[in-house]
C-alpha cells in the first residue's frame, strides 16, 4: 500500500496545501505513520514509510520519489513515444514530451535527453537548497514531477519539502527511540 500526495507545482499548489511552508500533508502522513508503526507485527507494508526507513539506514531504496540514486525506469506511451516520466505531465502541458520514439530512437538516445540525464546525475541535478539539506540522501529533493516552477523548471525542491522534512525527522526520531529502547532491554536481559 502507498499514500500518494496529489500532483502539483510551485505555481499550482495542490488542494489542501495553502502555502509552500504549511505541513498539512506532513502532519497527515505523520499521523498515518504513527498508526502504522504502533500496529503489531504482521502489518500491511506501506511503501513510503518503508522506503524512508531504508534510506535512514543507508539503503538505496527502490522508489524514484526518494533518495538520489539514478532512476531506472522510462515510460513508453502507447503510440511508441518515449516520455520523461508519465506523471510529469501534471506539471505543465507537454512536460512529458521528449521528441523521441521507438521507431526513430534507441534507448541510448533517450538517455542523452536532458529530462532523462538530469535524473541520472544525483546531487548535481538538484536545487541548491536540496544540495545543502541534511536530509538530501533520504529525501533526494522529492518526486521529480512535483518540483516544477516556470522560473527554474524542475530544479527546485519538491512542493512537499516542508512536509517531507517534518515527516522524515519524525520517522528518524521514532525509529531511533525504538532502537535505543530495544538495546537497553537487550543489555538488561544479557546481565540477568
Ligand atoms: S527536505 Fe526539502 S530541501 Fe531537503 S532534500 Fe527534501 S526537498 Fe530538498
Could you characterize what this model shows?
The chain is mainly α and 192 residues long. It folds into two domains: 20-68 and 129-187, no CATH class; 71-120, no CATH class. 38% of the residues lie in helices and 5% in strands. A three-stranded antiparallel β-sheet has the order 1-2-3, with no helix packed on it. Helix 1 (24-37) runs parallel beside helix 7 and helix 2 (47-56) crosses helix 7 (161-191). The longest helix is centred in the last third of the chain and has 31 residues, at 161-191. The mean pLDDT is 90. Iron/sulfur cluster is lined by residues 129-130, 133, 135-136, 139, 141-142, 157-158, 161, 164-165.
Biggest sheet, spatial arrangement of strands: 1-2-3
Content-based structural category? mainly alpha
State the major sheet.
3 strands, antiparallel
How much β-strand is present in the residues? Answer: 5-15%
**Structure annotation, total helices:** 7
The radius of gyration is 19 Å
**SS elements, strand count:** 3
The end-to-end span amounts to 41 Å
Uncertain spans: none
The average pLDDT score comes to 90
Q: Give the CA-based shape.
A: elongated
How would you spell out the order of helices and strands?
A: HHEEEHHHHH
- Percent of residues in helices comes to 25-40%
| Count of individual domains | 2
Summarize the structure.
This protein is mainly alpha-helical.
How are the elements arranged and paired?
Elements: H1 24-37, H2 47-56, E1 75-76, E2 81-83, E3 97-101, H3 107-111, H4 114-117, H5 128-131, H6 136-139, H7 161-191
Antiparallel strand pairs: 1-2, 2-3
